[in-house]
Amino acid sequence: MAANGTDVPNMKRLDEQIKEISEFPTFCGGYADIFTGVWRGGRASLARGVWTAGEAISGRNVAVGTIPPPDSRTQTCIKVTIKVFRDVHNKADTPEARQKYEKLLNNEYRVWASLCHTNVLPLFGVIKDPAIPSMGIVAPRCTFGDLRAFFSDPTRASSANRLAIVKGIAKGLKYVHGKTVVHGDLTMGNVLIEVIEGIVTPLISDFGRSRVLEVKGYTSSIASTVQRSGRFVLERDLHANLKK
């Protein structure tokens, strides 16, 4: 799968499918801005051990399992987040530069889109829309945000099964490493929390800094190695590539 570049398809384009995109970013990170929206017509099922999204990447599912018949758990309007790298669109000021940036973005993030595990957040695809400054990546919007936000609430912090959360993160990492992929930037902000069938479930996210190991010529230059874990490495590398 992710261990072979030829086995990782391009991501699904969700242009004109995401509606109600927020006018302004709802969160600003170190190198990206987060917008929210709704994927109308998208189908995803949340069940214990299963989080699926039909045809997220070239007709494949993004998570373990298959699309079930429509029922109370199947959504046709999915709340999503759209991640847009800050100021990259300003650097890509020509059609050629924008095309190069989009290719770099696809090459790196399709690794994330190919991962399928209960404790890995699905990546639905990429989008270009007038409401956002440049191409963004689309993923589910989790109810409780990241790990830091989840534990900032005293009630949740005292009642949560912390050992189960740690085990979930470990299972996700074991799966990812088994696919010869290194996350490269695992922080509290990159572990999201969703309650699925009453169980607090950690979901590892943001594999844009990942690199696929042992595949010569596949890892793109926007990926960081384990040693290069600075917050601005991805943005800097993107800018450098756009100038070439």
Give the tally of β-strands: 11
Total count of domains: 1
Based on the coordinates given, report the CATH architecture: 2-Layer Sandwich
CATH topology tier name: Phosphorylase Kinase, domain 1
The amount of beta strand, in percent, is: 15-25%
Give descriptors for this structure.
two-stranded antiparallel ribbon; alpha+beta; 25% helix; Phosphorylase Kinase, domain 1; 244 residues
Layout of SSEs?
Elements (H helix, E strand, L loop, with lengths): L17 E2 L7 E2 L3 E16 L2 E4 L20 E12 L2 H4 L3 H19 L11 E3 L8 E5 L6 H5 L2 H6 L2 H17 L2 E2 L8 E6 L2 E6 L6 E2 L20 H11 L1
Antiparallel strand pairs: 1-3, 2-3, 3-4, 3-5, 5-7, 6-7, 8-11, 9-10
Structural notes for this entry:
GO terms for molecular function: ATP binding; protein kinase activity. Residues 32-244 form the Protein kinase domain. InterPro entries: Kinase-like_dom_sf, Prot_kinase_dom, Ser-Thr/Tyr_kinase_cat_dom, Ser_Thr_protein_kinase, Tyr_kinase_AS. Helices cover 25% and strands 25% of the residues. The protein has a single domain (5-238), classed as Phosphorylase Kinase, domain 1. The radius of gyration is 17 Å and the shape is globular. A hairpin with a 2-residue loop joins strand 9 and strand 10 (199-204). The protein has helices at 88-91, 95-113, 147-151, 154-159, 162-178, 233-243; strands spanning 18-19, 27-28, 32-47, 50-53, 74-85, 125-127, 136-140, 181-182, 191-196, 199-204, 211-212. Helix 2 (95-113) crosses helix 6. Strands 1, 2, 3, 4, 5, 6 and 7 form a seven-stranded antiparallel beta sheet that branches. A two-stranded antiparallel sheet has the order 8-11. A two-stranded antiparallel ribbon has the order 9-10. The protein has 244 residues and is of the alpha+beta class.
